[in-house]
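FORM 7B: Structural annotation worksheet

SECTION A. Query
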Amino acid sequence: MRLSVDPCLGREWELHQLHSLLNYAESQNCAKTIYIYGITGSGKTHLVNHFIDCVKSAGKRYLAFNQPHNCPAHKLKFSTFNFIKQLLQIESTVTDVVIKKKVNLVASSSLSYLRTLQLLGLSLNQNQRNTLEKQTPQQMNKIDQLIACDLIDYAAHSRIALITIDDVHHLTCTQMQFLRLFTEQEYAQPILFIFTAQPKGLFTSVPEWLSLAHTIPLKQLNQDAQIRLAKHYLANRGLSIAKYQTKINVAIERAAGNPGFLQQLLLTPNPQKCNPTELQEVIDNILTGMPIELIELFLFSALQGFHFSACQLSQFTQQKHIYAPLCLVQKMLCSGLVVRKSDHYSFSHPLIWEGIKNYQPLLVKGSVK
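SECTION B. Predicted structure
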């Protein structure tokens, strides 16, 4: 019996893309990669979780990974070690002997066998370590490519149709280097990979290792989609839509097409004047972890308006005698809170702009002079 899945309100087109690419991978017997990106609250995780529910309701197998910092207890935490174990269906309680037998079954060469054991954190003897240490970087890359092929073959043999990794902007460079092995080769296996990220850090633009992926930017929801989402959200909580009509209108206006912010605003006591507490906490935490001069740059930019110019930033860095001002501006862009247009900068959302203006450094990190 298949489970019923609620509609993915406002993201029907994106959901259709996911279904179409999964069907293509299955019909053409090939692996496909999708890269979904958007600012916080844009609905990346919700879209992917909804698609996973659809895949599950169709009786298909999947693996869904979250980043360790925000991974629920019942979800799979991503690490290279755990990624390999899950693909090989290795239980956490099995012995090293059982793991070695499983890897030996899957590995297509003695070198890929040793390297897989190394990636899994198993101890190697001196001869085995010497064997791997003698390999050049180019040879090790070929071995890792072979491992990726072995893992994909086994995953397909296990009927895994979908593999998702959420918030890949939190990955380390080593983890990204390993995952790119799965995106740069062609596999004759029907598996769909989905990666999601916020446009921040190394992901302010589509990274080179995902350049061949099918990209899906999550744009703002239109007015009709926001109305449907707001009503659905309130109805699911047993709240009167008629009673909340004014709040719905205010929340839609301030959310500006962001579904996560819309839902937060609907539960905010005074959505006309107050920023959602959850969003403000996110912004406060981001700013608090920054160097003082970068916080000052954000606060200065927020005072200029939602849009601000390179000239205004230059005036600030000169006045403050900032060393390497271009580097400081680049750090601002890498935060994901600001985007650069052709001739100006903007905050990534009006509520993020307001949240930065509401930041109180005296309470959080000391005086910003």
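SECTION C. Observations
Residues 200 and 336 are 4 Å apart (CA to CA). The chain has three domains: 12-217, 223-274, 290-364.

SECTION D. Sign-off
Analyst initials: ____
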